[in-house]
Amino acid sequence: MTGVSSHPVTGTVDDASRPENLPEGWEEWLAFFAAQLPRPVDREEHGGSVTFVAGDPGEVIVELAPHVIRIAEYVAPPASPGTTAPRRRWLGRIYWQRMSPTLAIAAVEALIEAARETRHARFRTCTWCEQHLPPERMVDETTCRRCAIESLGPPADGEGHA
Ligand SMILES: [Zn+2]
User: Fold this and answer.
1) Is the domain of 69 the same as that of 108?
2) Which residues surround ligand 1, an ion (CB under 5 A)?
């Protein structure tokens, strides 16, 4: 992934799932997200678009498609077994080819910032271990799952755990 911004690498990947004629600026966006999103960055390609899931715990999800970039706050998958795909709380979409790259980047940066901020606003500090954790790792406003399991806090009644 080095040197992506200095020369286009379009055509070096022989993948039938990608559109043949990627729009101008596509590789620059890939490089931008690789550099700017919170790490680690998970990258998935399907149907001609690229999805980035960034941060651990997850913070922001970005979908890059030939005409639109969509940005969402990361929402943890439901606790039911077998579900691992995160959900998305959409914040905005940018039709990036309709504006200058400078304006498109500014708009995308603002939405990434908004996604991270709203995500972090949901974090809570566990009263028992004093860790600052995302909602999916808390059983309630004051106790994290680990402390609940280790019975440091009140029992996690009403959660349905055996
Ligand atoms: Zn705790």
Assistant:
1) yes
2) 126, 128-129, 144, 147
pLDDT digits (tens, 9 = 90+) for 66-77: 999 999 999 998
Tell me the CA–centroid distance for residue 158 and ligand 1, in Å. 18
Centroid of ligand 1 to alpha carbon of 38 (angstroms): 24
Tokens standing for residue 106: 């500014």
pLDDT, average across residues 146-151: 89
Considering the domain architecture, whether residues 59 and 132 belong to the same structural domain is answered as no
> In the predicted model, is pLDDT for residue 111 greater than 60?
yes
Whole-prediction pTM value? Answer: 0.78
Model confidence at 150, in pLDDT bands (50, 70, 90)?
confident
Compare 28 and 5 and report the one with higher pLDDT. 28
Four-point Cα dihedral 24, 25, 26, 32, nearest 10:
170
Within this chain, do residues 43 and 24 fall inside the same structural domain, yes or no? yes
Residue 125 φ/ψ, nearest 5 degrees? -100, 125
Query: What is the rounded CA–CA span in Å between residue 78 and residue 92?
Result: 23
**Residue 152 sits in which domain range?**
123-162
Number of domains making up the chain: 2
Residues 114, 133, single domain; the answer is no
Q: At residue 21, what is the residue type?
A: N
Mean pLDDT, residues 152-158 taken together: 54
